[in-house]
Target: Aldehyde reductase
Amino acid sequence: MMATIELNKPVCVTGASGYIASWIVKYLLEEGFTVHATVRDSSKAGSVAHLWKRAEGAKGTLKLFDADLIKPGSFKAAIEGCELVIHTASPFVIKGFTDPHAALIRPAVEGTANVLNCCNAVQTVRRVVLTSSVASIYGDAVEILKAPGGVFTEQLWNNTSSENHQPYSYSKVMAERKAWEICKNQSGWDLVTINPSLVMGPSLTTQTQSTSIDVMRDLGSGRQRTGVPMLEFGIVDVREVARAHILAGFNAKAQGRYILSAHTASLLQMATILRARFPKYPLPKKQLPKFLVKLVAPIAAGVSREFIEKNVGYALLFDSSRSTSGLGVKYRPLTETLCDHFAQMIDDGLLKKR
Ligand code: NAP
Model:
């Protein structure tokens, strides 16, 4: 099925106040769309003020709707009349919770089912773009050693995460699987997934709990000044991720999964790039040996030995050619992504001015 989306219809964006979704909403409003933006609580001025700011003077129109992932039916009013639904809402937290099911898996998986069941109920929807993740492609970095050709591609699925090991990754792969299963059992809409690696770049909001912001804060605050483990990430700019959702929404030929990943870099490489522009910050200067990380990190950072064993010391490679050739995404240089993000965190007071 090839979905053609009418440009005069409203577009629904779930989790609209979040780090990635705020950029999607901004671009849609600039392009003149009516955006049905869902948030958990639209009366919380602090978490939606940045969206209203983007709506001022934009060509498009912003409409806010209250919806909670764990409340069946709550997305129906927002989806009504939309042909395109961009479902980004899902918790992106990796620490600070005791019950991974309640914190991550239930809202991700049940939430995706609730949103898609609402799509079925309203019958105007032709395409759903789901924000999945590379966490749905692989669970631990060590899996790169067994990946065909030594590269992570859209063919692969994370089969190793569980509620107890990498619960965030488990929430993402189970949510994506649920989405494809629900999609298969209906014929009204098609599904496209965007599978980004670690998203970095400036945030339009300081209210987000996104782990993306924590990664940058940990690097710049001095918390890691004694050194970092050899942890490598695929990295992609939030602005490219937002654009990709819109391109995937309106390109009739878009189909399947799209890895979004522009570069790979270790924490130390990220710090080195940042130090050149922000020399006064206590960025880490060295890599800690794996045995030391294994000894210290379970206590210092609450990370399991199993996580360290399977993730520290592996170089990663992602094939994101579908995103460039199929969607037309153009990736900016890593330096720009990291430095823009760091500068914005200083401007917003999330990192001390030095
Ligand atoms: P974020 O700013 O924390 O956004 C998450 C959004 O989910 C928030 O808007 C949050 O709404 C919403 N949400 C959480 N629980 C909810 C619930 N029970 N009901 C309704 N909404 C709920 O994080 P983000 O980085 O932009 O993440 C957005 C999406 O991108 C997620 O699906 C995440 O898995 C995916 N992703 C992120 C990255 C990355 O590196 N950032 C990489 C790959 C994929 P509230 O404002 O109400 O809390």
